[in-house]
Amino acid sequence: MMTSTTPAAGGAVGPQDARATAIVQALGTRSIVLIGMMGAGKTSVGKKLAARLALPFKDADAEIEIAHEMSIPEIFATYGEAYFRDGERKVVSRLLNDGQQVLATGGGAYLNALTQARIAERGVSVWLKADFEVLMRRVRKKANRPLLQTADPEGTLRGLIDQRYPVYAQADVTVLSKDGPHEAVIEDILQQLEKRFNLPNPRTKPVAVTLRVGLGARSYDIIIGDALLAGAGAKIAKLFPQSNCAIVTDETVARLHLQTLQDSLHQAGVTVSVITVPPGEGSKSYAMFEKVCDGIIAAKLERGDIVVAFGGGVVGDLAGFAAASVRRGMRFVQVPTSLLSQVDSSVGGKTGINSPHGKNLIGAFYQPSLVLADTSVLDTLSVREFRAGYAEVAKYGLIDDAPFFYWLEQNWRDVFAGGAARQEA
User: Fold this and answer.
1) 313-325 and 286-298 are packed helices; what angle lies between their axes, rounded to 10 degrees?
2) Which of 171, 186, 239, 373 has the most CB atoms around its CB within 10 Å?
3) Which of 317, 394, 308, 314 is nearest to 349 (CA)?
4) Residue 365, SS3 per DSSP
């Protein structure tokens, strides 16, 4: 049987960069095996991935066609699907004995239990997952899909997705195959492999991102990044020169992070007073509102000074309402410390406390002057609390951004682990 091999770009297996070398070394003797539906891009992505890693590329379907001197549809028509599947199993097994490579398999190959076991033994499986609309757009362009030669190809494709996706989901790595440059998909594969092998990330640490909330005279910035607390004082002092501040926080956040924020403000020459409340929803009360307002007044802060809300949604609501009320309105900065408050309650200006008659019945719409979302403080959250905030993140994708939701499906582990994916989310 002849072998079809596509070498790295330039006609030969070429030298690797340091990143590619690290991944190939981590693979050992194993191959990268691409699985997924017809139209997922296994061949086109596989060729470029092989070139990126300076590995040979092989295509199981191409091997079968060369051996039979027939196209896949002709093999189906002449010998039937059962014959094809048995031959496919043998070809994949043989190819995995040929040394390290990037191997693209047919859409049904991974459904065979023996093939799946062979791939687990000799390779790392990468599922290129694409949604129905993407697949349908791609397969319509070609007439060489024997399984779709039916009166209802769309219904057939949906049925295949329902059958195959639970099996594909057992792959070692899952990457979203989306429209756009193949390089983006390849980058996702490389990142997932680095994560799987616990390789150091060679890319530079992501810089903070600034988003502008445009509200005319009430416009403000949201700064998102890692380890922002240490530089918070400089940012606040630059925005509000010669101002003093009151930090409103809860006992849990104070124990974990208050010293870092205080040191940062002191280094920037800002005089700081601290008002601490108990953690939890119970602090959104008349009693705690009174305590915070009296604390701000006792610190002799004027209207031009700053209230810093340093905590989760409860502290943000409580401190924001106090800032809106004391001296008929003081400037305030949100420094949210929970995922839920970073993606939701710290932005938009909703502040308030609870009443015995219901939640959030007393309050004001009062915009912050700045939001500092330090993603590193989220490392101290419990898994339960982080998940609660992540549900809010996923909700945004479900409501109005399908590509973002699919991105979360692929990257949720990295969001939980921190770093660039968390900041991107």
Assistant:
1) 60
2) 373
3) 317
4) strand
**CA–CA gap between residue 166 and residue 129 (Å, rounded):** 11
37 closest CA partner among 142, 170, 136, 119? 136
Residues 6+ away with beta carbon under 8 Å from 290: none
The helix (H) or strand (E) run that includes residue 5 is strand 5-6
For residue 396, give the 3-state DSSP assignment: helix
d(CA 323, CA 352): 11
Cα 236 from Cα 241, distance rounded (Å)? 8
CA dist 410 to 105, 134, 399, 406, Å?
21, 16, 18, 7
185 near 168, Cβ under 8 Å? no
Q: Record the pTM.
A: 0.56
DSSP-H helix ranges across 268-401: 286-298, 313-325, 339-340, 383-400
Strands (E), 64-162: 102-104, 123-129
- Residue 12: pLDDT band (50, 70, 90) is very low
Strand partners, 272: 245
Query: What is the DSSP pairing of strand 220-225 with strand 209-213?
Result: antiparallel
Structure tokens at 338: 């929970």
> For residue 24, how many other CB atoms are within 10 A of its CB?
17
DSSP one-letter string for 137-203: HHHTT-S--GGG-SS-HHHHHHHHHHHHHHHHTTSSEEEE--SS-HHHHHHHHHHHHHHHTTPPP-S
Q: At what angle do helices 81-95 and 72-79 cross, to 10 degrees?
A: 130
Residues 75-116 have pLDDT tens digits of 888 998 889 889 999 999 999 999 999 999 999 999 999 999
Pairing of the two strands 57-59 and 5-6:
antiparallel
